[in-house]
Amino acid sequence: MVTTTTPIPPDQACSVTPVVEIIFSRWTTPILWTLNEYGRHRFVELERRIGTITPKVLTQRLRQLERDGLVVRTYHPEVPPRVEYEISDLGRSLAPLFAVLADWTVNLDRVEQARADFDARKGAA
Question: What is the Cα–Cα distance from 52 to 85, expressed in whole angstroms?
Fold first, then answer.
């Protein structure tokens, strides 16, 4: 007798999957971390602080973060117009997570060593 199992959608198999998809996309974490650590930024300031992000991608991520309620965009009708971004209270609720991740960075040397060990074993095989 052959039995088949129906695949479980990832968001049902692991309850944190939707959170990971929101917070840990390629540029979301650096944007949120920067706004949490350094406060309100204008677009160009944020772009400079993050470094390698393109303006197009930064715009897309900021719009998504605003839509998700994690970032607040404030438009100042001046000449020239000024727009500022800051982390929302909801976004700020991620601060303990960022702190734990920052603490975990002490393990990065161990990860690099594990990779080197793995690659050496694979090269010897």
Answer: 18
Residue numbers of the chain with a pLDDT score lower than 50: none
Cα separation of 36 and 38, whole Å?
Answer: 6
Model pLDDT, residue 103: 95
Q: Is residue 3 part of a domain?
A: no
Contact 112, 60 (CB under 8 A): no
d(CA 113, CA 115): 5
The count of other CB atoms within 10 Å of the CB of residue 66 is 14
Q: Which segments within the chain are labelled E, that is strand?
A: 41-42, 71-76, 82-87
Residues 63 and 105 in one domain: no
pLDDT in tens, 80-107: 889 999 999 999 999 999 899 999 999 9
Which range of residues forms the domain containing residue 116?
94-125
Torsion angles phi and psi, residue 76, rounded to 5: -110, 110
Tokens standing for residue 73: 């965009």
